Amino acid sequence: FTMKVCFVVLLIEALVLNMDGVVSKDDGTACGLNAIFMFCGSACPTVCGEPRRHETCDKPCVPGCVCKPGYVLSEDRVKCISAMQCLLTIAPHPKKFQNFWPIAAMLGNKE
């Protein structure tokens, strides 16, 4: 009986997967607001204040929550914030602001 239950649960999980490995969650509660679960997400996500961090990442992908396109991790790495909110956060800090171009480019790529 438990094997049947496990099989049904696995089958249901397989049905909610998209072709790109993203788990469909309409309410956004599994990963938090503006984030999605990916089986092969970046091990070095873009973080507000460290916009080029992901460019030098040589780590393999990892399963977990990632920010949706147009969003980056907040500096405390707790939540996904919009690229605009990130720019407004780092603008008063010249050293951080000088590297804002990758995040500014996201503003034109919102889906």
From TrEMBL:
Pfam families linked: TIL
Coiled coil: none
Record keywords: Disulfide bond, Protease inhibitor, Signal
Annotated GO MF terms: peptidase inhibitor activity
Keyword Signal among UniProt keywords: yes
Superkingdom in the source lineage: Eukaryota
PANTHER family hit by this protein: ACCESSORY GLAND PROTEIN ACP62F-RELATED, RIDDLE
Signal peptide range in chain numbering: 1-24
UniProt name for this protein: Putative chymotrypsin-elastase inhibitor ixodidin
Family annotation (InterPro entries): Ser_inhib-like_sf (IPR036084), SerProtInhib-TIL_Domain (IPR051368), TIL_dom (IPR002919)
Residue span(s) of domain TIL: 31-86
Family of this protein: Belongs to the serine protease inhibitor-like (TIL domain-containing) family.
